[in-house]
């Protein structure tokens, strides 16, 4: 291979330029404008969400959701531990406290039993969380029936971090539409991109009106600039929404390509004992944003870092799974509930064993074959062994 094979790169359709040109032709260069409205409309139609607010990032959308749930100083918010830090950062922007919840092994997402224990304890302490942030990692939906039932029984609202799971479904329903709020990300490495951006969806359309208000500096209706609340500059630009409009039109193709990557790898590696593909929950469909595996580390002397290093030497980018947030220095001494008390946390096991593979919708068949052979070859070497070519 003469060019490096990367984890996940933007995949334009060609139509993006037309919508950007339209914005230039009509001088809608300023934030907001017809591309934003169209982009929101497309997200709404695709996901079935009742209302949508396009934002400058997925992180901004989480921040808005927390604000709309009136999370403030010293409030408590629960969040998945096994995720990218953006899921939890907005909790700290608001001065609130966080409790992290472990994963369960069947989806790698929030463990219902750990959540139940955490909520029972919180109730005893009269400090129920103002929100639970449930993340759907790598495209796989969390166990929403169980999680929704538990949250409802305690009357705690849900924010779904569907940054990685746009287009995934659970029992036929779109990821991001189960909670009071859902968020998507259109960052450069996501399944579709606006180069940078996000979206907030909500069950209650009134909440989206409020989100738009907060996202545009909380300007009151007046002839002068009148402000009663602190707001943000969080709306998506009309230029970037032009990219998003075109990307939404090819979302189904992008999902199909990523699902194909996963199936291809699964088929190629089914005889390799050290490799296990990320599990898929029955009744759910993953967009397979990233194809991920775990290594049976009893069957090889290599860690995911060793594999990553050897793959890099063959021009292939791989990456270990998310490092659990409860073990991040910035969240030292934050409460954490593990899946099974007294056992190693599920998310820690996954971090110890897991690896993300090149997963772009623009990978060629030749590249997929190269990656699959490379991993097989790398796993046949021992820790100290060198692989220079395949
Ligand atoms: C990418 C991502 C985000 C943040 O989205 P941005 O648009 O980059 O702000 C949040 N949560 C998860 C799980 C993500 O993967």
From TrEMBL:
Ordered alphabetically, the record's keywords are: Aminotransferase, Pyridoxal phosphate, Transferase
Matching InterPro entries, A to Z? DegT/StrS_aminotransferase, PyrdxlP-dep_Trfase, PyrdxlP-dep_Trfase_major, PyrdxlP-dep_Trfase_small
Among the Pfam families in the record, one is DegT_DnrJ_EryC1
Sites where N6-(pyridoxal phosphate)lysine occurs are at 190
Which GO terms are recorded in the biological process aspect for this UniProt protein?
A: polysaccharide biosynthetic process
Q: Where is the active site?
A: 190 (proton acceptor)
SUPFAM superfamilies, per the entry: PLP-dependent transferases
Q: What Gene Ontology molecular function terms does this protein carry?
A: pyridoxal phosphate binding; transaminase activity
> What is its cofactor?
pyridoxal 5'-phosphate
> Has the keyword Transferase been applied to this entry?
yes
Entry's family note: Belongs to the DegT/DnrJ/EryC1 family.
Cross-referenced PANTHER family = DTDP-4-AMINO-4,6-DIDEOXYGALACTOSE TRANSAMINASE, TRANSAMINASE
List the protein's name: Pyridoxal phosphate-dependent aminotransferase
Q: Which lineage?
A: Bacteria, Bacillati, Bacillota, Bacilli, Bacillales
